[in-house]
Backbone:
């Protein structure tokens, strides 16, 4: 089975994933947690480290910077970056994730394809990446989740929690508001696909809600 967690930074995705993983382990399930965003998988990060080593100062360092924005503003660089990132996700979610399922693992995804769609729209507003053949193939190739959770908190709570966690590259208030609006958009994240949970509640209450939905999905799949 596949369970995915989407939502704002600071909403508690990592906490709830850890709780769920421990609970599944106690039930006797093997679990694998996959964290990915377009351009930020383990293999893509390795590629960027290699390129930084080879190109020295020509490639920007991690995080937001004027140099990074200047590079990505080039249509050629933007299209190349997006194509590599999408192809990388095809391997990560379309092949590696399926391999984990075949090996008997329950897979928990910290962010999934719709989160990456938001990232690409925000970072490359002038690029019609959804028309790429690679993107359409990615949508076709990734397996559908059994349960998808969307964890949300107000923007001010997200900002405060990012400060408390000392996030290295937090989103600014404008970006967080844009993301929250997108996450609440029924056309982008329909309620029949995503279970929205207000994460201003205490951790145990949220965890109980997650487990309840997981058990319901497990019973349904066994019928």
Residues:
């Amino acid at each position: 089975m596949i369970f995915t967690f989407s939502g704002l930074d600071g909403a508690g995705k990592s906490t709830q994933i850890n709780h769920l993983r421990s609970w599944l382990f106690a039930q006797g399930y093997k679990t694998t947690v996959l964290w990915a965003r377009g351009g930020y998988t383990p293999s893509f990060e390795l590629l960027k480290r290699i390129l930084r080593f080879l190109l020295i100062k020509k490639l920007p360092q991690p995080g937001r910077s004027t140099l990074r924005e200047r590079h990505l503003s080039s249509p050629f660089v933007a299209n190349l970056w997006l194509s590599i990132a999408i192809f990388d996700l095809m391997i990560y979610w379309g092949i590696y994730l399926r391999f984990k399922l075949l090996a008997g693992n329950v897979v928990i995804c910290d962010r999934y394809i719709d989160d990456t769609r938001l990232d690409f729209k925000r970072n490359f507003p002038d690029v019609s990446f959804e028309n790429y053949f690679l993107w359409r193939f990615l949508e076709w190739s990734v397996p559908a989740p059994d349960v998808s959770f969307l964890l949300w908190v107000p923007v001010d709570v997200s900002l405060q929690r990012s400060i408390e966690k000392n996030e290295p590259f937090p989103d600014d208030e404008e970006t967080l508001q844009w993301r929250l609006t997108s996450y609440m958009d029924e056309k982008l994240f329909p309620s029949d696909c995503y279970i929205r949970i207000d994460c201003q509640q205490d951790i145990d209450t949220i965890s109980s809600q997650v487990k309840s939905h997981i058990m319901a999905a497990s019973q349904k799949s066994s019928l």
About this structure: The chain has one domain: 2-221. The radius of gyration is 18 Å. Residues 159 and 173 are 7 Å apart (CA to CA). The chain has nine helices and five strands.
